[in-house]
Amino acid sequence: MIDRIFDSVHIKEQAYNSCLSVLRLSKPYTDERLEVACEIALTKLRSPRYRNLKPILSSNQDKIYLAKKDTRQNDSETSEKQGYVRGSEYYGGGDKS
After folding, report:
1. Rounded to whole angstroms, how far apart are CA atoms 81 and 83?
2. Is residue 94 part of a domain?
3. pLDDT digit string, tens, across residues 17-43
4. Which domain holds residue 24?
5. Nearest to 63 by CA among 41, 31, 36, 44
6. CA dist 2 to 20, 46, 60, 63, 64, Å?
7. Is residue 62 domain-resident?
8. pTM for this structure?
9. Predicted confidence band at 53 (pLDDT cuts at 50, 70, 90)?
10. Would you call 87 helix, strand, or coil by DSSP?
11. d(CA 9, CA 4)
12. Residue 90 falls within a domain, yes or no?
């Protein structure tokens, strides 16, 4: 996210305050929550800022997103382990008496 902020400005110094604001969010919130909030913001916005992250964290949208992501991941792992089992009769390899 910091890279994206720096990429959005022409002069590097213009991005310092925005980056510091984002980094200061790691004081009241954990690093993990901040990472998830950044992931959410980066998928929805081209150039996210503090004003986009703060509402995500304060309303616990990051926790909801992470729970849904874990559920989807568990579902995909379960579906990968399961499969279609067909006997030889299906493929015509059975006895034809």
Report:
1. 7
2. no
3. 999 999 999 999 999 999 999 999 999
4. 2-77
5. 36
6. 9, 12, 22, 22, 24
7. yes
8. 0.68
9. very high
10. coil
11. 9
12. no
